[in-house]
Amino acid sequence: MSAIEFYFDFSSPYGYLASTQIDDIAARYGRTVEWCPYLVGTAMKATGHQPMVNTPMFRDYVLVDVPRFARLLGVPFKLADSFPLVATAASRAYYWLQGQDPERAHAFAKAAYHAFFGEGKDISKVDELQAVGDSCGTDGKRLAEAARDQAVKDLFKQKNDAALAKGVFGSPYILVDGEPFWGADRLYQVEKWLETGGW
Amino acid sequence: MSAIEFYFDFSSPYGYLASTQIDDIAARYGRTVEWCPYLVGTAMKATGHQPMVNTPMFRDYVLVDVPRFARLLGVPFKLADSFPLVATAASRAYYWLQGQDPERAHAFAKAAYHAFFGEGKDISKVDELQAVGDSCGTDGKRLAEAARDQAVKDLFKQKNDAALAKGVFGSPYILVDGEPFWGADRLYQVEKWLETGGW
After folding, report:
1. Which of A42, A111, B125, B143 is most deeply buried (CB count within 10 A of its CB)?
2. CA distances (Å), B45 to each of B39, B49, B69, B169, B177, in order?
3. Which residue of B14, B44, B49, B64 to mutate against A (max A Cβ within 10 Å)?
C-alpha cells in the first residue's frame, strides 16, 4: 500500500499537533507516512482565505484551542514570538535532505516542528535551522546553505504546485489512499478509515 | 450547572451533523443543551471569512466530507438544491416558538435541520417551514407568520448580536461553561471536557 500523505506547513500549529500523532496512527495499521511540507499561503492565494491568526475572533479561539489541544495530546507547546513565520527555509531544507537521506529528513521535520512549537524557537533564522539540522546528525551549516540553492528553491516550488494540483489547501491535510482529511481534529477519522478501510 | 450553549446556523451542514449528537452527549453527563440558531453570515462580516461552499478547493472537500461524516454518524444526509440558503425564517420561527414552548422549539429545530439536510427540503420557503411546524404539533401557519413579525425580527437580531458579543463565529460553536469548541469534529473533545471537567 502507498504511504499516507501528510501535508503541513511548518508555521501551522494544527500541523504540529498532527505531526506528533500521525506516524503512530499509521504504524498501528502497518502504514508509513510521507511528510510533505508546503506553504499554506500558496493555497490561500487560490482560496482567498486568510490565516486564522490574522482573523478577528478566530485568532482568540486559536490561542485558547491550540494550547488546550496540546495538553489533551500531552505534547509540549510554546508559542514563539516569531509566530506566524514564513516557513520557506525549513521546507526547502527538508526537501534537500530528503534527496540525501529520507529517514533523516523525517527526523529533521519532527525536530523543526518541535523547535518551533514545542520550544518557541525561530526556525526561520539561519542559526536555529542549522541547530535543528545538527541535532538530527546532519551538517546543519550545509543544510541551511542548501535551503538557499536555486535548484532546491525550484524543487520546493514544484512540491507546492503538486500539492495545490491535488486540491490540498490546509494544514494538516492528510490523504489516505486518495481520501482527504483536513484538520488535526480529524485524526480519529483517519484512524477509523485505516481500521475499517473506509465507510 | 448551566446548559451547554449550542450555536449553529440552519444552513450549516456541520451544524446539522453536530445537532444529531449534542443532546445525547450532554445527557450522558446529566447536562442540558440550549439550542441557539444564529446567522454565521453575521460573524463573517466581522471575520471577513467566506462560506466554505463558496470557496474554491474548500467546496470540493466539503462535498466529500459532509456525506462521509454523516455516514460515519449513521445519520441521513441529502444536499438540498436550495443549499446554501439564508436561514433567517427558520431561526426567527425558532425563537418565537421558544417564547411559547421551549421544548417544542427544540423539537422544531431538530425537525427543521432534518427537513433541510436529512430530506433536502427548502426550509426557506413558507410552505416547507409551515410543514415542519405542523410536524412538531404546533400551528405551522401561525409559526410561519410569526417569523415575519417585527418583534420577532428584533428578537433574532438581539440573539445574533449576543452570539457575536460572545465571540461565536462558526457553526457549530459550542460553549461548555464558557469553554469554546468550534466544529462538528470537536464533539469528542466536548465529551471529554464534560467527562473530565477540563484538562
Report:
1. B143
2. 11, 7, 28, 10, 26
3. B49
